[in-house]
Amino acid sequence: MKQKAFKAFLAFVMCWGIMTPVRAEDPDFSDTTYWTNLCLYSSTMSYAERSSCTAFMEYMETQSTQMSQRVKEINSKTAEIAANIAEYAKQVRDYQTQADAMSADIDALSKEIMDLNAGIAIKESKVEESQKAIEEDEKDIQEAETKIRERIENAQGTMRLNQVLDIVMGAGTFEDLMRIVNGLSDIMNYDKIVMDELSDDIAALNEKKEQLNKEIEELEEEKTIVAGKKEEMVAKQADLLALSYQAQTIENEYRRQKVDLEAEGNRIAGDIEAIRQKMQEISEHLNDVVAANGFTFPIKGGQLSRLGGTWHYSASFGGGVHLGNDIQCSLGSTAVAIGNGVVLKTADGCGYGYLGNGCGVANGGTWGGGNQLYLLVKINGGLYACKYIHLLAGSFKVQKGDIVQAGQELAQTGSSGNSTGPHCHFEIYYLGDEKNFASYATSWNGDMAFGCGWGSAALRNTCDNNGYKAPCRVRPEEVYGS
User: Fold this and answer.
1) Which residues have a Cβ under 8 Å from the Cβ of 140 and sit 6 or more positions away?
2) Which of 268, 308, 428, 447 keeps 20 to 30 A from 242, CA to CA?
3) Is 346 left (phi over 0), alpha (psi -120 to 50) or beta?
4) Cβ neighbours of residue 121 under 8 Å, at least 6 residues apart?
5) Helices 85-158 and 174-263: crossing angle, nearest 10°?
6) pLDDT digit string (tens) for 162-216?
7) Residue 416 pairs with which residues in a beta bridge?
8) Does 408 have pLDDT greater than 60?
């Protein structure tokens, strides 16, 4: 359930981040369970669905005064969040427990509502059948009453009993009186059984009507209970949405500050002497590496991100400096070499990450990078370095000093370090002519920014700004297309 809640946060943050205010006419949001599941738990939404999730959030605000107030409070705390980002990052992890509890409550309510609705459907069917049976009984009774009335009227016509007074005063002779009495006796004797049965039928019909009214009352009571349960579930869904909105606000601010946090203490990696020694040992093999023709895409099945784009995150993701591209991919996707070259460094041992997780430094990598891999490659006459960040622990197929070919499997993607979901943060550096390949590998000083700097200042050393004057950072979108 915790994993489910965590994915809920991720999915909602992702869908919230790429929403735009421009959208078609809003759909019907009355089925709040459907829309909550879509916007919080779905990781594969169309653009239209993502846009609709914005409208759903606004709809839920109008449905919940409490949620509307929560959103206002969150927005008013932006400056406080920015000033205390580390503390708020811890809160995001705590929210997972709260989201877990809320999701469990919502699931329980949803099941209870489904069970109640199933019972209501059965009772509605029973009520409908009872109503039809009563209508048939009423029809039969009306037909029987009509026949009796017709018989009495016909008998009155035969006996000249045109009015009640005829029965008492109409006999002019004894013979007339006897004729009237015999006529009345015939009616009573002939129809008594029928009238008794009709009376029984009417009594039974009234009992059925009373039972039907009772069933209808019970049905309405159950519908009232369902309506109350639905209101309770909508309130909990609104709480969960507000909780996710707060997590997203904190995460956006964290992204804005992330590049400066990463810059702290990341200029020189730990085991540089061991790396140099390893490179010296294989120096002869380095000279034999042939340049690749073109760049191989680094993640099989992945795609470049517009939200976690290069140089800056999108505005909806906080707009902070971002020195690489967050390649979108599923957990366990294959990371491959972008060209022919050598593995400069690996850092392994970080588990599944979270916002604010600095894991990476202790293992010889960059702060928050989690499990990492650094390559030096020759492509189209140029010398390039690249790094793969947030890889899956224990998935490495290569180690420092290994010669690799373009497309060769290196590791699998994960979500280690300062990460809130599976992806690969990927960077490329242009380091000059490919002729410097072996000498660069054997003399690398361990700078994991490859001379291009860290933090906001690194934006001065981008290749699209300085005309590919080495060293500079390459925008992956220029290499692979956007």
Assistant:
1) 201
2) 308
3) beta
4) none
5) 170
6) 444 454 455 555 566 556 555 655 655 656 677 777 778 888 888 888 888 888 8
7) 352
8) yes
